[in-house]
């Protein structure tokens, strides 16, 4: 498995991967349509955020999008694995990359606003739920927030 930056031409396919991954949680078509805008990668995000693709000889397995909110707070905006690649370690690989990249920029904390069904993955990786939620694209639905404390580089 290699990690590499995506090209602008790949963004529609990566957006589709995000939607397919979200669908694997059992959401219906109406819910997925509500998620579509927030799961669509925009070309300007290649300039403002750090994006990484996990790929092997079988193709793209997943992607992650990392944003710096402040000098000491980074945020995982998206981390999605292709449904047929779940359980292969791709999510862990991308999450570790996000933690190390955030730490390398001086971030002390990594914020994750998670789908409720994915929160367990982030907790397994060391993130802790905080007493805060964020609104989702679906009215009346709140998303759990988690923080991963990053080690200070020595």
TrEMBL record:
A Pfam family the protein falls into: Acetyltransf_7
InterPro entries: Acyl_CoA_acyltransferase, Bact_Acetyltransf, GNAT_dom
PROSITE patterns per UniProt: GNAT
Matching Gene3D superfamilies: 3.40.630.30
Residue stretches making up the N-acetyltransferase domain: 1-152
Keyword set, alphabetical order: Acyltransferase, Transferase
SUPFAM superfamilies (alphabetical): Acyl-CoA N-acyltransferases (Nat) (SSF55729)
GO molecular function: acyltransferase activity, transferring groups other than amino-acyl groups
Signal sequence extent: none
Name the UniProt record assigns to this protein: N-acetyltransferase domain-containing protein
Annotated organism of origin: Hyphomonas beringensis
